[in-house]
Amino acid sequence: MANERELTMSKAIAEAIDQEMARDHRVFVLGEDVGIYGGIFGATQGLYQKYGAERVMDTPISETAFIGAATGAAAEGMRPIVELMFVDFFGVCMDQIYNHLAKNTYMSGGAARFPVVLTTAIGGGYNDAAQHSQCLYGLFAHVPGLKVVVPSTAYDAKGLMISAIRDDNPVMYFFHKGLMGLGWMKYHQRSVTPVPEEAYTIPLGKADIKRTGKDVTIVSLAMMVHRALDAADALAQEGIEAEVIDLRTLVPLDRETVINSVKKTHRLVVVDEDYHSFGMSGEIAALVAEDALDYLDAPIRRLAVPDVPIPYSRPLEQFVLPSAERIAATARALME
Amino acid sequence: MNLSKEQLLSMYRQMWTIRIFEDEMAVAYMEGKSPAFDIGSGPVPGEMHLAAGQEPVAVGTCMHLHKEDTVVGTHRPHHFAIAKGVNINKLAAEIFGKETGLGKGKGGHMHLFDVEHKFSCSGIVGASFPPACGAALAAKKMGKDWVAVAFAGEGAANQGAFHEALNLAALWKLPMIFIIEDNSWAISVAKQLSTAIPDNSQRAAGYGIPGVRIDENDVLAVYEVVGEAVRRARRGEGPSLIEVKTDRLYGHFQGDPELYRPKDEVPTLKANDPIARLGAQLHEQGIATQSELDDARAAAKADVDAAFLFARQSPYPAPERALEDVFV
Ligand SMILES: Cc1ncc(C[n+]2csc(CCOP(=O)(O)OP(=O)(O)O)c2C)c(N)n1
Ligand SMILES: [Mg+2]
User: How far is CA A27 from the centre of its chain?
Assistant: First the structure.
């Protein structure tokens, strides 16, 4: 491991796509600015230069048409990777996603396959305001028929992307902008990790315990994993050992890892950068209440974006995003 | 053209107000972002789409509009806002994230709302058309001669909402004007790589309404063509579609490396600056003296400087105010 090269998450994603494109001629990429630009967040960097405009296709700003086209091409046996530049833009194309891509396999009685990977950027913290800062993976996880992947490190990003591409089902792949390692946006250094050069897979539906601990379980994903790890570092100074679980995928959801951890720590904090109500944090709280209620020594706590659109101004935005300090304070309070 | 000297000078001054606003914003945006560029740092964080070079379409159009007319703009909205009469102090304050801004700092540069001047915009490409239809529909239902203008980029003309709105507006004969700003680019994608026909105004034929293409980035040309469309709309004869060739002098957003753009493009565009051209025209035709032109420009600069000062000196909103205003 020691001399293994390190990659940013965007490079890891692009490498995964590159290797799968080389291996499988049915894989192609389409989306806005995925060509020469390499994807606004770098997820397709270098691919256009290598594979050309036939396999890395810049699209018009017509999300309904090109995401629907990905579904249609997949039905014919192609394996499209289609990018929705920011998840916030789903509004212009949701019908093709949730009424078609998500449901067609079921409505065909399992006869039709849609091996589409729909990649999209999520997350705030850099003042891009209400229409460019949301996470919304909970919304897509709510709809049956879409697998939902949300990596937090370069290592996970590559393995999960390869699994996503090889999966015969629709997979939505959410990358957090603040974890991509971009030259123009501050990123969490911990997202940059050693990444093997060869292709490898990480199974969808397997959470990762990013830090082990015996006192309190913190469940999260994407950027909030890193905030939780920062909080855990602070808590460790005080003798509190937090266990940090990175869900990595919401669908399938690794209930077992969460339950086993809570059975050990007896305390649960769920941290989410998505909206508070009707989402991931409620789902995790519910499954623990269902399967491990008797093990809890303290109430379940949730930290998420209070139910407001993401505000623009820095003090407002910072107020609504869970911080390491608030995560630590919440965990600490459960120990008292 | 039936424009008075005052009107022409006012257009000239407005174009300068927009240009100086954008140029000063470009500078303010870079504060706190060097040596390492970080989009979230400095007094003006987040994405920043500037409209320098695109003044003619906004100013030439809005000269025809009254306060009661509605304008819906795009993610690149400052020129429309200024031309529609939005208070530039509040505009600047919003972009600086201050409590005194149009949306108390909640909206930001792509999400400007001025209820009084009936201006709004959105960061979602193609989102301007449907609400403009609604404003036009409301005017019609209320028996007013108000019109609604939807601006959008040439990239937005490939969005479904554009075509749905065109049909709706044509079907219901709405007092509406669709204006496409063709600056040749949608981020890195050139128009000819995204659009099946070279001229979006031809698409009007599909909906049975007038379509006009203006091939020069010229405020007087815009003024003339839009004037006809506005009069037609006010007469109750329905919508028009106009595409205007215009020039994006900055990158798509500030910090755009623009690797996709031919190196000589921007210098060529700058050599054909629409504000300088109008100034020269007014001078040559003896409409305005050089000192009148200089005064107009200086007045524009004074307005912008005052707006930026107001923005900088205004307080940030208290953090807890993030929880307010979801509902009225
Ligand atoms: C529905 C939607 N898709 C994609 C984007 C990302 N995006 C923002 S601006 C832009 C290009 C817009 O091009 P154009 O309409 O020509 O306007 P311009 O930027 O040239 O003013 C894109 C793709 C978006 N904001 N909304
Ligand atoms: Mg454009």
Answer: 21
| Contact predicate A152/A246, CB 8 Å | yes
Shortest CB distance from A129 goes to which of B37, B107, B316?
Answer: B107
Domain holding A56: CATH number? Answer: 3.40.50.970
Q: Note whether residue A280 is domain-resident.
A: yes
Residue identified by tokens 């989102």 is B127
The neighbour count for residue B46, using CB atoms within 10 Å, is 25
Phi and psi angles of residue B245, each rounded to the nearest 5 degrees, phi first: -70, 130
Render pLDDT for B184-236 as a digit per residue (tens, 0 to 9).
999 999 999 999 999 999 999 999 999 999 999 999 999 999 999 999 999 99
Which residues of A, range 130-169, sit inside 8 Å of B by Cβ? 130-132
**Over the stretch B266-282, which tens digit does the pLDDT of each residue have?**
999 999 999 999 999 99
Give the CATH number for residue A290.
3.40.50.920
Q: Omega into B319 within 30° of 0, i.e. cis?
A: no
Please determine, for the modelled complex, whether the ipTM score is greater than 0.95: yes
Backbone angles phi, psi at A325, to 5 degrees: -60, -45
Closest ligand (CA of B74): 1
> Does B128 lie at the interface with A, CB-CB under 8 angstroms?
no
Share of chain B above pLDDT 70, in %: 100
Residue A81 parent element (H or E): strand A79-86
Question: Domain range spanning residue A244?
Answer: 208-334
pLDDT single digits (tens) B55-109: 999 999 999 999 999 999 999 999 999 999 999 999 999 999 999 999 999 999 9
Nearest to B326 among A33, A308, A316 (CB): A308
Residue A178 domain-assigned (yes or no):
yes
Nearest to A127 by CA among A311, A324, A274, A320: A311
**pLDDT (tens digit, 9 = 90+) per residue, A39-83?**
999 999 999 999 999 999 999 999 999 999 999 999 999 999 999
Asked whether residue A26 falls in the same domain as residue A174, the answer is: yes
Closest ligand 1 atom to residue A40 Cα is 6
Note whether A186 and A287 are same-domain residues: no
Q: Whose CA is nearest to atom 17 of ligand 1?
A: B153
Q: Are A195 and A5 in contact (CB under 8 A)?
A: yes
Measured distance CA(A123)–CA(A145) in Å, rounded: 23
Cβ-count burial A304-332 (b if 16+ within 10 Å, e if not): bbeebbbbbbbbbbebbbbbbeebbebbb
Same domain, A167 and A86: yes
Cα of B185 vs centre of ligand 1, distance in Å, is 9
> Does the residue A39 lie in any domain?
yes
- Which protein residue has the closest C-alpha to ligand 1 atom 18? B153
Same domain, residue pair A216 and A148: no
**Nearest residue on chain A to B125, alpha-carbon basis:** A61
Q: What is the dihedral of CA B116, B121, B122, B128, to 10 degrees?
A: 120
pLDDT band at A3 (very low <50, low <70, confident <90, very high): low
* Residues in chain B within 8 Å Cβ distance of A91: 124
Residue with tokens 């993610």: B75
pLDDT above 90 (res B2): no
CATH number at residue B80: 3.40.50.970
